[in-house]
Design brief:
The chain is of the alpha/beta class and 259 residues long. The protein has a domain at 110-176. It has helices spanning 3-19, 60-68, 90-97, 115-127, 132-145, 161-173, 191-208, 219-225, 243-247, 252-255; strands at 20-31, 34-45, 49-53, 75-80, 83-84, 100-103, 179-183, 211-215, 228-233, 236-241. It has a six-stranded mixed sheet, with helices on both faces. It has a four-stranded antiparallel sheet with strand order 2-1-4-5. Strand 9 (228-233) and strand 10 (236-241) form a beta hairpin. Helix 4 packs parallel to helix 6 (161-173).
Length: 259
Amino acid sequence: MTTQATSMKNEHDNKQNVRVAVDMEHLKKSFGNNHVLRDINLVIHKGENVVILGQSGTGKSVLIKCIVGLIDLDEGTLVILGQNTSELKDKELVELRKKIGFLFQSAALYDSMTVRENLEFPLRRQLHLIPKEELNSLVKEALENVGLSETIELKPSELSGGMRKRLGLARTLILKPEIMLYDEPTTGLDPITSKEISNLILEVQKKYNTSSIVITHDIECAKLTGNRIIVMKNGMCAAEGSYTDLKNSDDAWIRSFFE
């Protein structure tokens, strides 16, 4: 490759790194004979909310667990914030994963801890020794961001389902992630609370310029939060577009998600 060609390639790669948060090429994952991810090709741009729809068992949650590193891929190339995960050493992977926030369906809170202690836990684990004043400031900011300032000394068991979900989000946001992964963020919530969580996802995107993947069966959540919607089928991306595009698709199976 000539010097000019190399320079042009590097310039192209740098531009891609500026625009792209997650780049997935030919991702595959099987559990025995169950081929869950068959061939995923998907790009998430920086500052973009991408919603993934699909029937149960089509691989949506497995996909985001592969992205965050909870499950290892079998094949494919996964580039996160410009770094090819297959080329990173363990320590480098740990540092990269600090930039990824994951909101579990259950919110994954520690019921034996207060709200304050739940938020302090990831800070102490990731940042280790941190001045008390800074710790208090970060905890208060995180709670203010999700409207839970008054719950700081309560236990998670004293909170409603929607409040627990917001607390789970606050605990994730306290480390200022660049990428957010939401696994069924509105599951089990009433329509009003579901809308509140959807609006909160938008506020997080706006305030922190996060790049997000939202796994959901909630079409209202998809409509509110998604800059782009992906429909998965048989472990692959079957369709993508705006809410309006997909709702008016010529494919009756695609339209069925929006009816």
